Structure formats: C-alpha cells, structure tokens
Amino acid sequence: MPDRPFEDLNPHGRRRFFAAGFGRLLRPLADYLESRLPIPLPVVRDFLRPPGARPEKDFLNTCFRCGACADACPAKCISLMTSDDDQLRGTPVIDPDLAACVVCDELACMNVCPSGALQIVDRFAIRMGLARVNERVCVRSRGEDCRICVEKCPLGESAIRLAPDGRIEVLDPDTHSGLGCVGCGVCQFYCPTTPKAIVVAPN
User: Fold this and answer.
1) What is the mean pLDDT of each run of 10 residues along the chain (203 residues)?
2) Domain spans, the chain
3) CA 160, CA 79: separation in Å to the nearest integer?
4) Pairing state of beta strands 92-94 and 198-202?
5) In terms of pTM, does the model score above 0.90?
C-alpha cells in the first residue's frame, strides 16, 4: 500500500489499511494458539493396515514404503496402495475381501519392517480393527447353521463365537481382558453373503 496519510485514502484504501493492521495484530495470537493448543483432527480411513501398525499419522511419517512387509507376508494379503495422495501412495494395506491376514506364527510383516512403522507385538495384542456383524444380512438370522466366521478365525473362540441365543458374537478386546478380535479380516474374507454380513472396521 502506498505510504499516504490516512485521511487521504479513499474508502477502499481505508478498509485495506484496517485489514492489514488487524491481521498484523492477530497473527502473533494465532501463532501462539497454534503452538500451544494443537488440535489434531481424527484420521479417517476405510482400509486396514498390517498388524502392528503405529497410529495412522505416525505410521505415514515412519513407513519407508519399501514393500518388505508385502514381500514377506505368507498369505500374500498385503498390497501397496495406489493413490494420488503422496502420503498414501506405496503404503501397505489389506483388503479382506481379496485376502485376509492369517495372524501367522512368524508375524512376518512386523519382523521384517525396517522402519518401525510395524511394531512387533504379541498376536493377541494386534489391533488392526474390529469385526462387526450385520444381523439382517447374516444367514443365521434366517435359520441357517452357518458358522464359517467362527471356524475360520485364526484366534478361534477367544475372538468370535456363537452367543447363547445363536447369534455371532465378536469379542471386543477393550472389554474382554486382553482377548478379542484383532481385526485380521479372515471372517470377512470367508463370509458367504453378498454384501458381507461381517466386516472389519479399521481402528
């Protein structure tokens, strides 16, 4: 803005003068609040990360996108993401509709990860997600004795079971003393219905 006396400015120039001054006044306050009160937004995603994955923000900052986890996976369930987003491109994901994590004995993906994006945890401490049952879609609601999800689960009845009333019951690890669903997706993979009656919601 030209260095002119305030009284010589037209109304438009006066508005710009006040706006610039107001901005300079508030900028230190905004910077202070941003540094003192960081409010991270929740990261929403609709895909599963491999077992042992750090929280999403840390995972994205840590992962080398090297593909070692995908190469080591005995179930070949890990693929590398294609995306227009540079942060997501090349990161490992699991789509249980195509192939599910089998919670292998060697916990291979965690053990070969060179970056620490996948941390080594006990198989019962894995938290990829939580399976949720849609009772209206499940064939058991129509009297069929399907129990594929229970029979195929690599953790067995410590994660999913038939409830006394005959419904499929997924055990939430937050309320079952260390046991419960780890979100591997095996139940979703083998579920015979379309759409799936049981789907893993990512953590």
Assistant:
1) 50 47 55 52 73 97 98 98 95 97 97 98 95 97 96 96 96 87 98 97 93
2) 9-36, 56-202
3) 26
4) unpaired
5) no
